[in-house]
Design goal:
- By secondary structure, this protein is mainly alpha-helical.
- The protein has a domain of 68 residues.
- Helices cover 45% and strands 9% of the residues.
- The protein is built from three helices and four strands.
- Strand 1 and strand 2 form a beta hairpin.
Length: 151
């Protein structure tokens, strides 16, 4: 144990090669899995419901029916995921743009404008973000639904 209470650092064998990627992944046993989308809510006829990742199956514990989320077309599902990612990227780009413009104006025009920063933040959180969330929820409610058939 170190003085700070953490475990003692142990160097890997042959530490001269530790910067080579294949050695690190082989020694650590790292497996890089494919990125999964958010789970899909599957409701069984008996009333049981579960969140199942796309492409996986679920067997209802109550009635034994087996549900497969691969019945949803992949291009439609991943298209929805791309659209939701684009909404997030637009929001991030807007934040960066507003901060950059505000910072440049405050830097070159008047440093006193920095006192306006709390007002701009209040406008952002009180005005813009509720509007953005309503827009995003409206779009999420308009997404298609699928009627899966049990296997």
């Amino acid at each position: 144990m170190h003085l700070l209470g953490g475990p003692k650092r142990v160097d890997p064998p042959n530490s001269g090669d530790r910067n080579r990627l294949e050695h690190q992944t082989q020694q650590a046993g790292i497996t890089i899995a494919r990125m999964k989308g958010p789970p899909i809510t599957v409701s069984c006829h008996c009333g049981e419901a579960r969140h199942v990742p796309y492409g996986e199956t679920w067997q209802c514990e109550r009635c034994g029916r087996k549900w497969n989320t691969s019945q949803i077309p992949a291009e439609v599902y991943w298209g929805i995921m791309r659209e939701m990612r684009n909404y997030r990227l637009i929001l991030i780009a807007t934040v960066i743009g507003v901060a950059a413009i505000f910072g440049l104006v405050a830097l070159f025009v008047s440093p006193g404008l920095l006192l306006m920063f709390p007002v701009i933040l209040a406008g952002w959180f009180i005005g813009f973000m509720p509007w953005w969330r309503r827009r995003l929820r409206r779009r999420a409610r308009a997404l298609p639904t699928w009627k899966l058939e049990p296997e």
